[in-house]
């Protein structure tokens, strides 16, 4: 496909996007959006017109003009005052004169939307293979064509070889007959039964076969001159060379391919011309991905459903216990509920509180600056009233070896094979059934062998194997994961990794890391073990994450303040420890979300980047970096006491 860019139609036009071409060439079936070529022109009087010079393939020009005239008459297209066909022998030219108050681009968009100036062309790459019709990919089609042409050249060469050998055999007979011409003439004269009897006599007496005898009796006396005899010798020599070439060609397939390449070159030189159909990248098509740099992004989702994408490098590392920088301007008491780190090219899955699932590419989420609120999810997804996104994740292929594990706030869990969700519609897909009053809150991708840790707001946690939950159908409701006490609810779920620690953070900014081994494996539906001793002073658990020493943490408060710290700055302690202050909060402020990201090495930045970043931060007046000596000694030691 680096060489075969796409179909080239004799009527020109524009193919909008390459996704249809890729689908057709990769699978044998696809749909192309073919659009007429139109330009906006202005005459000397300032009147603007839309001029169409190329139309989609297999679309009749008269039908286009007639259909647009009907649309203008019925006022479905507004802004056209006159339609004129100026086509001649030099080419096509359809002119749509516009009203003075018309917006040309708007009218052109209406023409593409309602008329035959834009058509969908279906592609089915079908061919006869061994006498059977088959749909082929581009590579298969090319290979079958090469094999077929190799067969054609082989059969053609075999035919030419047989023809040359037969002719050489006849010439050899003529050459021998000339040497004994007197005896042959006497034999023919002695025959009284005509040519058949003469042929039989020559064959019997001199040993010639039927083709040679036929040529001899048909030979004229005048051809016995010396010059004609020389021509026989020359022709026989040429035929012997041809026979040798044909035999050598048939014995080496690579030489047959050389002949094929030579003939293709002759066809190219004779018939090639410039491409007529333009292939144009369009916004929203998969081709736009080629223009977007691949980088790690932080996706944030607020309580009221505003989503935002931003490069993770925008949050530079600070000391533990710092105040952070302003990350989002809040309105109407909105705050961030979910934070996710992914690549700009990854596919994002969105799960709603009502148990539905949607899909978007990461780059399709509008990018915002650090203080921007973002875009409401209702503008990106077909959400129902009172429905909001509660969980986000990235996914590659929808294979059979991975599972989606979902947990609700009331402690129900469900495990379903990932391939059950591969056909995601724009209107969403049912991810699981829900009991009345329950909501889907967390979703994780597992490999079928993971151990899950589920934590609650009141400081309990349970660890069990995901195989304790049998695989269920896509619309099933699930089973109990943890038994909750009254007033408690699930606040997080992670897949345990022995090489990492579980980070627990409270809404008061306290936190600590605990080895995964401190969480014993239990059976599903138990009460769990103590994860954190909560109270009004230390706060209640707002979430858990699995982190490594070489990662950073990004935390955000309900006032929109964001801080990025190294995970290694958070002490490793037992499940019973209070922990350290990971984020200093203002009065009535609390931590609402946090995420683990790859470590950002400040030494990798250039001096100019650091200067620019410091200048931007200082201009906003939002930088409050905390040095170690700003912290109480007890807190630095990991006791986590209040000042």
Assembly level: single chain
Classified by CATH, the class of the largest domain is: Mainly Beta
- The DSSP helix count reads 11
Q: Low-confidence parts, pLDDT < 50 over ≥5 residues?
A: 284-288, 604-643
Kindly report the name of the CATH homologous superfamily of the largest domain: DNA gyrase/topoisomerase IV, subunit A, C-terminal
Largest sheet: 4 strands, mixed
**Range of strand content:** 25-35%
Total strands:
34
In short:
With 643 residues, the chain is α+β, with helices and mostly antiparallel strands. The protein folds into three domains: 14-135, Gyrase A, domain 2 (2-Layer Sandwich); 138-251, Topoisomerase, domain 3 (Orthogonal Bundle), CATH 1.10.268.10; 292-632, DNA gyrase/topoisomerase IV, subunit A, C-terminal (Neuraminidase, 6 Propeller), CATH 2.120.10.
What does this structure look like?
The chain is an alpha+beta fold and 643 residues long. The protein has 3 domains: 14-135, 2-Layer Sandwich (Gyrase A, domain 2), CATH 3.30.1360; 138-251, Topoisomerase, domain 3 (Orthogonal Bundle); 292-632, DNA gyrase/topoisomerase IV, subunit A, C-terminal (Neuraminidase), CATH 2.120.10. It is 26% helix and 28% strand. The strands form 9 sheets. The chain has a 4-stranded mixed β-sheet with strand order 7-2-1-10. The longest helix is centred in the first third of the chain and has 42 residues, at 138-179. The radius of gyration is 40 Å and the shape is elongated.
